[in-house]
Amino acid sequence: MPLFRNIVLSSVLLRVALILYSEWHDARSLVKYTDVDYRVFSDAAAFLLRSGPGATNQARGDPYTRETFRYTPLLALLLTPNVWLHPSFGKYLFAACDIINGLLIYQLLVKEKLAAIYAASYLLNPLVFSISTRGSSESILSLFILLTLYAALNSRWDVAAIMLGISTHWKIYPIIYGIGNLGVIGAAERDKGYFRTIVNWRTTRFTLISAGTFLILGAGCYAIWGYPFLHESYLYHVHRLDHRHNFSPYFYLTYLTYPSHGASNARAPELWSRILRSPLTSFVPQMILTLGSGLLFGRSEKDLVFTWFVQTTAFVIFNKVCTSQYFLWYLLLVPLLAPQLLLSRWKVVACVGVWVGTQALWLAEAYKLEMLGDNVFFTLWVRGLFYVVGNCWVLIQVINGYDR
């Protein structure tokens, strides 16, 4: 406990120092420490407060007046103190969620000898604390997911269903965990066959509560903010075409067939172009892997963390857009999974080396594109394929090293 208290205290001081530094740095430098998304959040919160009873089209405030705000309006509502209290309120909130996440990880591992070390691997992870102090809201979603997992591992499935509904409202991807839970919830029916394990009263109850929570939150937001909420929070992400460079294996193909690239688009066959730009091109293989792994591995509470990790990692690797921020989705589960892995020291070193090395390989080429303006789209995509292969190899090592 003394060790963990020191880890928590160090984590708090580190985040406070970085937030204070971000204010000093941003006031003096053209290259900002603060993520551009944080300004989007703050502007959306301001729009939410700005419109009063006398406004014609925004009588209740409309965060979607801010272009590129493509999140639940509850995030803008949560960050309204950015406007009337302090501009960095949201950063402190995100950092606080980081700390709570670390406490939950420790609580879930409290019986493990190295619980404090595992929790520290999250709390003191540079990717984790830099993203939250720069103003990304991922730590809030991570908190909802950990609360869902905490409830599930304690067999409080109604609470887990509610938290999963909230998580899915916040960002749609946690819906995949619902599939991973079914085999665990219905384990008592396993002797009646696999179908009865997945489809029974307990799994139906879980699904109805989770879906009901999601629909109630969505209906409430739709009643207030209408179609803009529906489009920006959900529909936009289904039809999104992002030709900007990212780790995804689909980015270069999207770039070549993007509507604004007239010359490239003219050379591409119309049918081929349509296939590449279709959401199904990335969505189908991604869902087969994530949902299939959930059904395959989700058999008992002991396997729940492992199942979620495999689902999340596959989802991120094969998502049509993939940035470093998305890595937090599965890194959140690594401290909880680590005690269940039987990997040699050299295998761990190899996995970490491949994971970091493939990113470094990609980032070196991305620097030429982003900072130097070199036309390296193709070679950057090739390096992205190395990233995909390398991360798949790491995932396979984790699956093979899992202590069943």
From TrEMBL:
<dbReference type="InterPro" id="IPR007704">
    <property type="entry name" value="PIG-M"/>
</dbReference>
<comment type="similarity">
    <text>Belongs to the PIGM family.</text>
</comment>
<comment type="function">
    <text>Mannosyltransferase involved in glycosylphosphatidylinositol-anchor biosynthesis. Transfers the first alpha-1,4-mannose to GlcN-acyl-PI during GPI precursor assembly. Required for cell wall integrity.</text>
</comment>
<dbReference type="GO" id="GO:0004376">
    <property type="term" value="F:GPI mannosyltransferase activity"/>
</dbReference>
<feature type="transmembrane region" description="Helical">
    <location>
        <begin position="208"/>
        <end position="227"/>
    </location>
</feature>
<keyword id="KW-0808">Transferase</keyword>
<feature type="transmembrane region" description="Helical">
    <location>
        <begin position="376"/>
        <end position="396"/>
    </location>
</feature>
<feature type="transmembrane region" description="Helical">
    <location>
        <begin position="172"/>
        <end position="188"/>
    </location>
</feature>
<comment type="pathway">
    <text>Glycolipid biosynthesis; glycosylphosphatidylinositol-anchor biosynthesis.</text>
</comment>
<keyword id="KW-0732">Signal</keyword>
<keyword id="KW-0256">Endoplasmic reticulum</keyword>
<keyword id="KW-0328">Glycosyltransferase</keyword>
<feature type="transmembrane region" description="Helical">
    <location>
        <begin position="115"/>
        <end position="133"/>
    </location>
</feature>
<dbReference type="Pfam" id="PF05007">
    <property type="entry name" value="Mannosyl_trans"/>
</dbReference>
<keyword id="KW-0472">Membrane</keyword>
<keyword id="KW-1133">Transmembrane helix</keyword>
<dbReference type="GO" id="GO:0005789">
    <property type="term" value="C:endoplasmic reticulum membrane"/>
</dbReference>
<dbReference type="GO" id="GO:0006506">
    <property type="term" value="P:GPI anchor biosynthetic process"/>
</dbReference>
<dbReference type="GO" id="GO:0051751">
    <property type="term" value="F:alpha-1,4-mannosyltransferase activity"/>
</dbReference>
<protein>
    <recommendedName>
        <fullName>GPI mannosyltransferase 1</fullName>
        <ecNumber>2.4.1.-</ecNumber>
    </recommendedName>
</protein>
<feature type="transmembrane region" description="Helical">
    <location>
        <begin position="348"/>
        <end position="364"/>
    </location>
</feature>
<keyword id="KW-0812">Transmembrane</keyword>
<feature type="signal peptide">
    <location>
        <begin position="1"/>
        <end position="29"/>
    </location>
</feature>
<feature type="transmembrane region" description="Helical">
    <location>
        <begin position="140"/>
        <end position="166"/>
    </location>
</feature>
<keyword id="KW-0337">GPI-anchor biosynthesis</keyword>
<dbReference type="GO" id="GO:1990529">
    <property type="term" value="C:glycosylphosphatidylinositol-mannosyltransferase I complex"/>
</dbReference>
